[in-house]
From TrEMBL:
GO terms for molecular function: 3-phosphoshikimate 1-carboxyvinyltransferase activity. The active site is at 347 (proton acceptor). This is 3-phosphoshikimate 1-carboxyvinyltransferase. Pfam families: EPSP_synthase. Residues 287-315 have a biased composition (Low complexity). It is found in: Cytoplasm. It comes from Nonomuraea composti. NCBIfam families: aroA (TIGR01356). InterPro entries: Enolpyruvate_Tfrase_dom (IPR001986), Enolpyruvate_Tfrase_sf (IPR036968), EPSP_synthase (IPR006264), EPSP_synthase_CS (IPR023193), RNA3'P_cycl/enolpyr_Trfase_a/b (IPR013792). Pathway: Metabolic intermediate biosynthesis; chorismate biosynthesis; chorismate from D-erythrose 4-phosphate and phosphoenolpyruvate: step 6/7. Catalyzes the transfer of the enolpyruvyl moiety of phosphoenolpyruvate (PEP) to the 5-hydroxyl of shikimate-3-phosphate (S3P) to produce enolpyruvyl shikimate-3-phosphate and inorganic phosphate. The keyword Amino-acid biosynthesis applies. It catalyses: 3-phosphoshikimate + phosphoenolpyruvate = 5-O-(1-carboxyvinyl)-3-phosphoshikimate + phosphate.
Length: 460
C-alpha cells in the first residue's frame, strides 16, 4: 500500500532557523570507496547515513571490505574501514544511486571473480553505456550495456576514449579506482561538454589527498598513475546541495535560514547557491562559525553543526585548508526569475525551478540536457508537475523556461526522486494544498527531511 501523500506545510510567517545538515552524499561515497581501496585501515568521519550511503557500504562489504561503525550521532557515522582482498561472487544492489552504479563497477573489475549488479526499475534506464564500454576497452568482460549486468576482470587499465556528456560520474568512477589498475588510466572525453565538472574536481582533490597522482592539465583529459592509495582519516563536509530547499525557504517566506559549517573552500555543487540565490533576490552573508543569529533555534537534529569539529581540526583537505563559516541567507518574500546555465551544478535544478515557479519574472535554465538521465527525466518531471499546479513551465532542448503564473494546490509527484520531492515542499511553502507524493524518497540523501523541514518552520 503506498503511503499517503505528504501535505506540504504552508509558511504563514517568515522562517528564522538554523539548519545543520548531515554529510554530503558525494563526499561520503567517494571517501568510503577510497578507504576500501587503501593500503591499510582508515577512518571516514561524519559520513552520511542515507539510502545511497547505505548502498555504498553494502556494496563495499560484499566486495570484501570491513566497515565498522565507531560512533554514530545525528551529525553522521564514523566508519572504521579495513580493506580486504576484492572478492568476486558478489551481487551489488545499486538502488537508484548514480554514485554506486558508476563508482563500484571499476572496483568490481578488480575482484577475483564475476560480480553482478542490478538496481531499482528506473536504475535500468539510467545511462551506463560509456563507462561499461570504457571498462571493456580496459580489459573487463561485461554482458550488457545497462543494468542489470555482470562484470569480470582482470582489468589492466591503460588509455580509453569515452563520451561523458551524459554524466560526469563516468569519469569520476574510472578515476577513483584507477590507481589500482596495473597501468593506471588515461581518459579522453570526446563529445558535447561534460556536465558537473566540480564533481570531477571533487574526485581529483580527494584522490590527491590520499596520495594518488592525477594529471588534469589538459581539457577533457585525465590521467591517474598506478600506485598505492593511502589510508587516511577523512571527514565529510555537510551536504550543500541538500541545503538548497532550506535556503530556498528563506526566499519564499522572506525569512532567514542559517546553515552552519559551510566550507570556505569546497568542490561541492551546492556552493553555487550563494550566487544563484543572490541573483534570485536573496542577501547571502557569511558569519563566523561560532556565532548564531540571535533569536534563532536549531532545526533538525539539534546537535552541533555537522562538520564543525572536523573542519576546525579535521583531515578532510578541503575543510582543513580553510575552515568554515555559517552561511546566512535572507529573503524578501519576492523572488526574481533567473537566466542561468546550470551545467556545472545540475543537481540544483529542481530547487531553482521550484523558486522560478514562484518568481515574479520569467526564468530560463540552460545547459542541463543530462538531467534526463538522472533519478527521473527531471526536465519532463519539473515541467509536468509545475504545470499540474497551474504553472507555466516549458521544456527546451537543454533546460526549462518557467514563466510567472499563479499556482494552486494539488498533487506534486516525486518520481522516486529526492530532489523532486523537496522541490514540491518548497512550492508548498507558498501554495496551500500541495501534497507531495512519496516524500519518503528523500531518504536517498536526507532521511530526516520531513523532521528537519517541520523543525525549520517551527523554529523562532
Ligand atoms: O559524482 C557525484 O557525486 C555526482 C555527480 C553529478 O552527476 P551527473 O554528472 O550525472 O549530473 C551529480 O548530479 C550527482 O548528484 C552526484
Ligand atoms: C543526480 C543525483 O544523484 P545520483 O548520485 O544518483 O546521480 C542527485 O542527487 O541529484
Amino acid at each position: 500500500m503506498p503511503a499517503p501523500h505528504w501535505p506540504a506545510p504552508t509558511a504563514t510567517t517568515p522562517v528564522t532557523a538554523t539548519v545543520p545538515l548531515p554529510g554530503s552524499k558525494s563526499v561520503t561515497n567517494r571517501a568510503l570507496l577510497l578507504a576500501a581501496l587503501a593500503d591499510g585501515p582508515g577512518v571516514v568521519r561524519q559520513a552520511l547515513r542515507s539510502r545511497d550511503a547505505d548502498l555504498m557500504v553494502a556494496a563495499l562489504r560484499a566486495l570484501g571490505t570491513t566497515l565498522t561503525p565507531m560512533r554514530e550521532t545525528s551529525a553522521g557515522v564514523d566508519w572504521q574501514v579495513t580493506p580486504g582482498p576484492i572478492r568476486g561472487g558478489a551481487h551489488i544492489d545499486v538502488g537508484l544511486a548514480g554514485t554506486v552504479m558508476r563508482f563500484v563497477p571499476p572496483v568490481a573489475a578488480l575482484a577475483d571473480g564475476p560480480v553482478s549488479f542490478d538496481g531499482d526499475p528506473h536504475a535500468r534506464k539510467r545511462p551506463m553505456g560509456p563507462i561499461l564500454d570504457a571498462l571493456r576497452a580496459l580489459g573487463a568482460r561485461i554482458d550488457n550495456d545497462a543494468l542489470p549486468f555482470t562484470i569480470s576482470g582482470p582489468l589492466a587499465g591503460g588509455e580509453v576514449t569515452l563520451d561523458a556528456s551524459g554524466s560526469s560520474q563516468f569519469v569520476s568512477g574510472l578515476l577513483l579506482a584507477a590507481a589500482r589498475f596495473e597501468k593506471g588510466i588515461t581518459i579522453r572525453h570526446v563529445g558535447p561538454p561534460v556536465p558537473s565538472l566540480p564533481h570531477i574536481e571533487m574526485t581529483i582533490e580527494m584522490l590527491r589527498a590520499v596520495g594518488v597522482r592525477v594529471d588534469a592539465g589538459e581539457r577533457d583529459v585525465w590521467r591517474v598513475e598506478p600506485g598505492p592509495i593511502a589510508a587516511r582519516d577523512m571527514t565529510v563536509e555537510p551536504d550543500l546541495s541538500n541545503a538548497a530547499p532550506f535556503l530556498a525557504a528563506a526566499l519564499v517566506t522572506g525569512g532567514t535560514v542559517t546553515i552552519p559549517a559551510w566550507p570556505l573552500h569546497t568542490t561541492q555543487a551546492g556552493d553555487a547557491l550563494r550566487d544563484l540565490l543572490t541573483t534570485m533576490g536573496a542577501t547571502v552573508t557569511r558569519a563566523p562559525a561560532d556565532s548564531t543569529a540571535s533569536g534563532t533555534t536549531t532545526a533538525g537534529s539539534g546537535t552541533p553543526a555537522a562538520g564543525s569539529d572536523a573542519t576546525a581540526a579535521g583531515s578532510h583537505p578541503t575543510a582543513a585548508r580553510s575552515g568554515t563559516t555559517d552561511l546566512v541567507v535572507t529573503g524578501t518574500g519576492h523572488i526574481t526569475g533567473i537566466d542561468a546555465d546550470l551545467r556545472d551544478v545540475g543537481e540544483l535544478t529542481p530547487t531553482i525551478a521550484a523558486l522560478a515557479a514562484l518568481a515574479s519574472t520569467p526564468s530560463r535554465i540552460r545547459g542541463v540536457p543530462h538531467l534526463r538521465g538522472h533519478e527521473t527525466d527531471r526536465l519532463a518531471a519539473l515541467a509536468t508537475e509545475i504545470n499540474r499546479l497551474g504553472g507555466d513551465a516549458e521544456e527546451t532542448d537543454d533546460g526549462l523556461i518557467i514563466r510567472p503564473r499563479p499556482l494552486h494546490g494539488g498533487t506534486f509527484h516525486s518520481y522516486d526522486d529526492h530532489r523532486m520531492a523537496t522541490a514540491g515542499a518548497v512550492i508548498g511553502l507558498a501554495v496551500p494544498g500541495v501534497e507531495v507524493e512519496n516524500i519518503a524518497t528523500t531518504a536517498k540523501t536526507l532521511p530526516e527531511f520531513v523532521q528537519m523541514w517541520t523543525a525549520m518552520l517551527e523554529a523562532r
